[in-house]
Design brief:
By secondary structure, this protein is mainly α. The protein has eight helices and three strands. It has a three-stranded mixed β-sheet with strand order 1-2-3. The protein starts with 7 loop residues before the first helix and ends in a 17-residue tail after the last strand.
Length: about 325
């Protein structure tokens, strides 16, 4: 009996769509990289001249993001390579690995900014509010463009990790802008490190959420968009299916989801029709095009004769 459950027509259409999606994602990543890297150098010089921790922190954040975006762009290109004899699933998981590295980099950046913010609170320093305001406005505009590019580039873990970095930059620019305006209006210097810490808290929450999803992917957990019990119940409800067991669902990376399961059917001759119905249901209801399904016949328990024990008179 056949045991492989994915049709060639589904497979080729699926891969073709993802190829174009990842090409667009790679282009968006490269454009965002150019913008981020160029401005991070300008912002670092301005922050050093103005004495602003918010600007220096944001510049450091953007420089780290440039490394993250470069890594993400590299992973997006590598993940498009076809499967090999050694890597039969291809290199789709490279995107999750890049997202993991990016998330860890973000944690390091957050720790560094908080450390310097505490130092600045203990020993306040003068900040040139006007220069901070101007540079933060420019940075805000550049980060908005980069975020727009990435939001149109795809929804895979890799692009989302890069977008998270850019959103962190955008929030940093907002904090620096607010710090510059408040310092200009009131002269209250502690606002600069305080806003840096606030932004770090927001970035930390987003980063931890991303890392949780990355670990789910790397540990072959069920993608968050799917429910294992719901998929199992839907499969069991397909006409001709008696029951489903040994169901496993995991992400292959690059937007692909895989599924394996054992399917109990009444008659072996029904399998081709049942397989087709299961394939169609998994594709239409859950977007799962890569399913390996093993048909099984109902198990019949052997008749066992046991001696009846009774009281003897």
């Amino acid at each position: 009996m056949p045991d492989h459950g994915h049709g060639h027509s589904h497979h080729h259409g699926h891969a073709h769509g993802h190829h174009h999606g990842h090409a667009a994602g790679s282009t968006a990543l490269l454009l965002a990289l150019g913008l981020t890297l160029g401005f991070s150098l300008v912002e670092a010089l301005a922050g050093w001249w103005a004495g602003s921790l918010a600007l220096l922190g944001d510049a450091g954040h953007m420089l780290t993001d440039s490394v993250a975006l470069a890594l993400a762009a590299f992973a997006a290109r590598i993940s498009q390579r076809p499967p090999s004899q050694r890597l039969s699933y291809g290199l789709g998981r490279m995107e999750a690995i890049a997202a993991l590295i990016n998330g860890l980099l973000m944690l390091a950046v957050v720790a560094a900014i908080v450390w310097h913010a505490v130092e600045r609170l203990l020993t306040p320093q003068a900040v040139a509010g006007g220069a901070v305001t101007v540079v933060a406005l420019i940075g805000l505009a550049i980060n908005l463009v980069a975020a727009w590019l990435l939001s149109r580039g795809g929804n895979d873990l890799n692009t989302r990790a890069a977008l998270l970095h850019v959103m962190g930059d955008l929030l940093g620019s907002v904090a620096a802008l607010a710090a510059g305006i408040i310092i200009q209006l009131t002269g209250w210097m502690p606002i600069d490190p305080l806003l840096s810490v606030l932004i770090c808290g927001l970035i930390l929450a987003s980063t931890l959420g991303l890392l949780r999803q990355v670990f789910t992917t790397l540990l072959e957990g069920v993608p968050e968009s799917l429910s294992l019990p719901e998929v199992g119940r839907t499969m069991a409800a397909v006409d001709g299916v008696g029951s489903v067991h040994d169901l496993h669902i995991w992400s292959l990376g690059a937007g692909r989801t895989a599924l394996t399961a054992h399917v109990v059917i009444a008659n072996a001759s029904d399998w081709p029709a049942v397989l087709h119905r299961l394939q169609s249901t998994l594709q239409s209801d859950f977007g799962i095009a890569h399913a390996t399904l093993q048909p099984e016949l109902p198990r019949t328990e052997p008749i066992v004769f046991k001696r009846k024990l009774g009281n003897r008179g």
